[in-house]
Amino acid sequence: MPIGFDTGLSALIAARTAINTIGQNLANASTPGYSRERVLLETVGGTFSGGLRLGGGVRVNSIERVTDELLLSRLRIQQHEVARRSVGLQNLQEIEQIFGEPGEGGVSALLGNLFNGLSGLAATPDESALRSGVVQAGTALAERIRRIQHDLTSSSQGVDGEIASTTDRINAISQALADINERLTAAQGLGPPPTELLDGQSRLLDELATYVDIRVNDLGAGRVRVNIGGQLLVGVNRAIPLSVSKNSDGKSEVILEDAVAPLDVSSGQLRGLLDLEGSGVKERQDGLDRLAQSLIREFNEIHATGVPSTGGYQSLQASNPLVDTNQNGDFLDELIINAGLPFDVQDGALLVNVIDDATGAITQTSLDIDVSSDTVGDLVNRLSGISGLNASVDGTGRLSVSAAIGKRFHFAPTLDENPDDSNLFGSASGQVTGSATGPFALANGDAISIAVDGGAPQTITFNSAQFANISQATASEVAQAINGTLVGGTAKVVDGHVVVTSNTQGTTSSLLISDVSGSPTSLLGLSTTLDTGAGQSVAVKVSGTYSGTTDEEFTFRPLSDGRIGVTPSLAIEVLDASGQVITTLDVGQGYEPGSPIDVVDGVSVSFGVGAVSQTAGDRFSLKALADSDSANVLSAFGLAAFFTGSGASDIDVSQSLKDDPSLLAQGLSSAASDNQNISRLLSLRDGALGSLGNRSVEEFYNEMVAKLGTDVSREELTFQTETLLFDALNSRLEQARGVSIDEELANLQRFEQAYSAAARFVQAINDVNQTLLSI
Amino acid sequence: MGFRVTQALSARAAQFNVQRSFARVFKSQQALASGRRIQRPSDDPSAISRLLFFKQRAKELDRFSANTSEGQTFVESAASNLQALSARVADVRERVVQGLNGTLSTADRRTIANEIDGILQDILALANSRIGERYLFGGTASDVQPFSLLTDPSGQQRVVYQGNDDTLTAEIGPGVTAAFNVPGSKVFSASQRGATTIDGATGVQPGTGTDSGTGVDRLIVAHGQTTYAGGGLQPGLSAANDTALGNLSLGLSVDASGTTGTITLNGGTPVAFANPQTDLTVTGANGETLHIDTTAVTPGFIGVVSVTSDATYSLDGGATTTPVDFTATSQQVVDSFSGAVLNVDSTGVTTTGVEDVTFGAFTLFDSLIAIRDGLKDAGQGGRSLDEDIERVNGFLAQLDQGHDQLLEKLGTLGGFSSRLQAGEQRLQDLDIRLREIISKTEDVDLAEATTELQQNETAYQSALLITSRVNQLSLLNFL
User: Is the CB of residue B195 less than 8 Å away from at least one CB of chain A?
Assistant: First the structure.
């Protein structure tokens, strides 16, 4: 072979290889993840000829993949962040959509509609259309809250689905990466690793990086090891599958096969999804639940202690079913606090008013509730014990209360119209009232005698057996002891004082008490002078509505002896529970008997004709309640409820109100235009509620929406920043590895020219050889 | 390595820029088209809470405004009713002045009384008028007819109030509640109480102590039992018709055989009797009588016999009675029908009878009824015509007081009305201010948004232009 021919050939081959590489680059100019290739040429060592060293041509050393591994790994990390933020943002935006604020259909507007409806009804409480309007506004609000909660729940279920599909995808990728590792192992020793395998690997690693934060190690020959959170995902020849499970808090956890602890995923789309379960949706669901619970509870506590426009209920069924906690098939033996009611019952009292339809008379009964010992059965028995009422619990655990025919009932803080129902004030009967209140230091065997209506004195002896502790005897024990023996007279306890009266009335009625043994009369403060009954007792009538904010018990007692409306400067003083004089009522000459006098806080009282006596200890007491259900029994059971349910997922307006809006408890009396209870409900509009962290319902909700808006906008901003950063890194990588068509075309020109030149060279060598041969 | 710009890079950059520009154009467009700057909470998280708050306040204002006009309508109807009522009361006055002319005949006065009765019915209808289903003057008992004309057991007509004293209220502003009704009991309340007068034919006088009745009433002083302490006298056959009451002393003088004698009552003309006499009527100085059975007189009795003649009071036509305590200067008699209390001085009671009681206080209805009945019966009862006319004149003074009260309540309603009007004005001012704030928070500033849109459009167009230019550039074009 002539010298130079090989050199030309090597140049031709090199140029062709270079042109092929350019072709490959141009073909993949827009293939994602493609790294451009470059031909590396080197000279071939020459031969010595005649002392001269001649070059041997050119040779393709290798085809290089141009990329920047450092940038690539930074890009992957950035990709985790972008992916995580993108999931978070999408979800928050979805939540934002679900709330639909600010809009006419949003909770804020519907809450406003409910309160505005109430305000309108307060102005015209007898307008039945407005009453239905309130019920409808309540229903719309409840529906909206339920809808949001439902959509939030589906959204969180969607998140669960996405977590599952993401782990599936991660498993598929890690399996594919393990396969590539195996093929790379097989290709070992057959020259450089095939670029298509490396590019495929790179693409898969990029995708995997969007899901989880991975750490990639080079194992040689192009193979990689992939770790997540310090645990192996892909090894030389195998991939370890991931699985998802729920932990005890109901949150999803990702765990590698055979691993002891769940995987610590710190970024990537999977982290974003796991975060959503924790904060995004959950935070809103919890907030909405809290809002709904407060609404239900606060509305019901007020609504249940009002009077419907029908003047009272004929029957009521509780909306909250009881739970048979000890599963013995009986609801009645459960403690009320353990009976599965959604709201708490506390120590306190429930006032029950039973109204006689025919006479309009109201009978009041106060039921004391002691949560440590009272069972459902105790409450049922006490309710049934009220004349004209019947209570029971049905098979589904719902408490029912119904009134006898001709009766109605309600739980409003009504004042007892007739507080002196035993006619002790201005007594028509002979009566002696003790001036002292208990406990009394009686001794066993102390005795008094009582002569009723001028009859023979009857001796009453106090025995230790009649008292829990005779030296600490209570007024009611003393009264019980007297009633055990006394004929023709009765002992009662009024305001802590023992009062003994004759059972007859009129001027022939009389009472005389004296000591027989010891000095019980002075201990009890009982007068030993004869008391004779008056012609008639003084009719006491209470009217009005108590507007005070704390429960009170007022005691009324005359300051002197005299006749109502006749005796000059006859006055009755009113004391509060602590014995403080609140006011003094002038009922002497100048007072028109029977006309109401304002006492305090909306309470009025009137006195009929007759004589009252300070010396006989005339007195009566009147309970004025600010809260007629201090035990919260009604809201716990859901009796006479406005809202039913226990949270955002089941809040609704009571079905009986929907069926009959006239059951809306708008007043505190049966007057058709009484709006006092609506006014109390309206106070919830601006009232700070303890259950909402001393915010009003509206404030609480608005804050929730504002927080959502802030979260979305912050997430948007973060997402934008992270994306920009990702783009910048991506551009830089593209700069390094991307295909520039201009550059390739220029190179193409270059290698075309090199090829032509080499061809000419071969031609030239050929010509030289021809010339030589033709010689 | 130098800065390499690849085709993919420039394409990506172009795509990014075009997208971003278009997103801006889209946002500007959306804002302009809806007129709202805040479509979602995240559009302006710092403003959303305020926005929701102000929107609710704005809706509340609408409600307050509706409440105010509801109240205003009520107040105006009530006021126009009271005006009509006042005009009718003025008519009564005119008629009464005519009726008191002494020259009118009984028939003429009856005609006028009938006219007044018609006016009374009109006034009652006006006081019972409704707006919608709501009685204007019933307090919060708005579904119960507030006033009814009833006749009590003593035959006296009365207007009874069945409403209550409570006020209707409406929310007319943030935390402001206004009353807008005057309960009927206040419109037609009793006048300032003066002294009660009793004609006194039976000797009953007003006692000490405060009465609670209004208008006119009838007090029946009825005889119970007569008891004779000595002289062998016994109640006669018609003792039930005895009219002499109290602790009496009879001068009795009987002959020795017990067949004849004389009886003198309260210094009256001595009455002679001759037995057997089972129903001897003895009349006292003032015309009071006792019916005595003298068959068992003690022969030869000459002296004074103590007699006790029980009596009872009744203010309600006999439905309930109160025993007369002849020593009491103040006894309380209660009308079980109206609850009215009358204090009487019983010390001067000498005979049975029916007393016209005129309480010291009248409601407008009491005055009307008293005037009507007074005119109708003028000169027909125990009093002279002049006395009766004088009495009706007294009622007329009470009517004027009632009328003044009515006008005063009309003033109260006027006060409510102007308060509501002022409230309405304040609401409107608030509303304008609130809408301004909402608009500033929520609405797009048109000028700004339009400029912004134009800017964004220009940016978008340039992005497109540059992209198309750059994409055309390639070495290929020049080879």
Answer: no
